[in-house]
Design a protein that fits this description.
Largest sheet: 6 strands, mixed
Structural class: alpha/beta
Order of helices and strands: HEHEHEHHEHEEHHH
Radius of gyration: 19 Å
Shape: globular
Helix content: 40-55%
Strand order of the largest sheet: 3-2-1-4-6-5
Oligomer: single chain
Number of strands: 6
């Protein structure tokens, strides 16, 4: 039996109430990589199905890149806990071999391809919402990466509607990564690690920007333990009129 921490469930429940992630009659597709974040989210959604005062349906979908990945243990795990699960086979790895140049970054390419396959599955099977396991650390890293490397002030929205009409939701947007790690360890969840990462198969550069940003936030949090509390508050308290954009000054 998987026992999730009360704090994790409370934070996820409050975020669901605030952003209306999931409600009565919703059909939700969960992007399940098999890593700690998405696997814990699968169990949180299963818990919600049991206790929430509304009925909803969800399925966990894993994208296979065509690298010969073995998802049998993940499939057995989902079956054991009554989590509907399906694996989408693709040739993304083969396509990447033609598209990605030596010393090029791979993350955005695989992310776009994976998201496209999840969108297609959702549209073809009547799922209106796509749940992703991004957490508060991901949002903070995204914000500082955009700020430092792209010259933009943007992060990860808790909820938004894609151009194809699919509503993307991030139920863990208020949750810290370490909480998900602790829940995975406490429940002895067998997660998929770097062995399934396409970067292990290509002679390409690692995503140094994210690694550098993650380390920067670790260092900043050591100096200010309240850092992520402040960041969460800041993401919800944006003063558009204070920026140098003419659109906000009219």
């Amino acid at each position: 039996m998987v026992t999730l921490s009360k704090k994790l469930l409370r934070q996820t429940g409050r975020a669901n109430a605030k952003y209306q992630f999931i409600g009565e009659g919703d059909k939700v597709l969960l992007g399940l990589s098999g890593g700690k974040d998405s696997l814990v989210l699968a169990h949180v959604l299963a818990h919600m199905q049991r206790v929430a005062p509304f009925d909803f349906e969800f399925i966990a979908v894993t994208v296979s890149y065509g690298m010969g990945e073995d998802y049998s243990n993940l499939q057995k795990h989902c079956a054991e806990y009554g989590i509907s699960h399906e694996v989408i086979d693709s040739n993304v790895y083969e396509i990447a071999g033609e598209k990605i140049r030596k010393n090029s970054s791979f993350c955005s390419f695989f992310s776009r391809m994976r998201r496209g396959l999840l969108y297609t599955y959702a549209l073809e099977n009547g799922y209106k919402k796509l749940a992703l396991a991004h957490h508060l650390d991901d949002a903070a890293e995204s914000f500082f990466m955009n700020f430092i490397y792209n010259g933009a002030l943007r992060s990860m929205a808790p909820k938004y509607t894609a151009q194809n009409g699919i509503i993307v939701i991030r139920p863990f947007i208020h949750v810290r990564e370490r909480q998900l790690r602790e829940n995975a360890i406490a429940n002895n969840l067998s997660v998929i690690g770097d062995e399934a990462c396409p970067s292990m198969r290509f002679d390409i550069k690692m995503p140094y920007a994210r690694a550098n940003t993650k380390q920067m936030l670790i260092d900043l949090e050591k100096q200010n333990p309240q850092l992520f509390i402040s960041l969460k508050s800041a993401f919800e308290n944006i003063h558009l009129s204070s920026f140098m954009n003419p659109e906000y000054l009219r």
